[in-house]
Structures are given as C-alpha cells and as structure tokens.
Design brief:
The chain has 111 residues and is an all-beta fold. Helices cover 0% and strands 53% of the residues. A hairpin with a 2-residue loop joins strand 9 and strand 10.
Length: 111
C-alpha cells in the first residue's frame, strides 16, 4: 500500500518562508520521479517543482528563484523549501511520487 503524507503547511506573512515535507511508504523511492503541485480555489492543479531520480529539477515560472525541491532517498522524503512567499502562493500543496498523490497541505500567505 502506497502512503504519502504531507506536512509543514500553515499561515505565514508575505516575504516569509515555509518548508513542506512529504514522507512516502510502500513504494520504491529511489529513481522515482517526484514533485510538488498546488491548487488554488477556482484554478486547476499546477506543477510547482519536480525532481527526477537522477536529481534533475524543474520549476514553475512563478516560483523560480524562490522555491527549492530536494529529496532524501534514505528517509523516503521529498521537501519543498519556500522562500519569499507571496499571497498568490496561497493554495493546497500536493506531493506526487510516481503516480501516487498525497492528501495535500494548506499554505496561506497573508499580505
């Protein structure tokens, strides 16, 4: 059984930082593509950042230079460091490992 659990979301002021965590169990983590997506009210889910098994990263245009995705294969955890947060970053953030999804964690940025 695959299980992905996100944590680290919350309420933060504009310009602040948050670090999101996604812990995975029940899957082969190494060499599996993984990423973070987000969905704001009334909008479609969009890619925030992704990382391949080889360590290659990709970021959405709106978060480049502010967010960093990383992984720890030994701990089967993927991270998203979010700096210089803006109100438009407010959304539910979802972890994706392979084709499996977590349940999401709310990030709210106040102005």
């Amino acid at each position: 059984q695959v299980r992905l659990v996100e944590s680290g979301g919350g309420l933060v002021q504009a310009g602040g930082s948050l670090r999101l965590y996604c812990a995975a169990t029940g899957i082969i983590f190494s060499f599996t593509a993984m990423g973070w997506y987000r969905q704001a009210p009334g909008k479609e889910r969009e890619l925030v950042a992704s990382i391949t098994g080889g360590g290659s990263t990709n970021y959405g245009d709106s978060v480049k230079g502010r967010f960093t995705i990383s992984r720890d294969n030994a701990k089967k955890t993927v991270y998203l460091q979010m700096n210089s947060l803006k109100p438009e970053d407010t959304a539910v953030y979802y972890c994706k490992v392979g084709r499996d999804w977590g349940q999401g964690t709310q990030v709210t940025v106040s102005s």
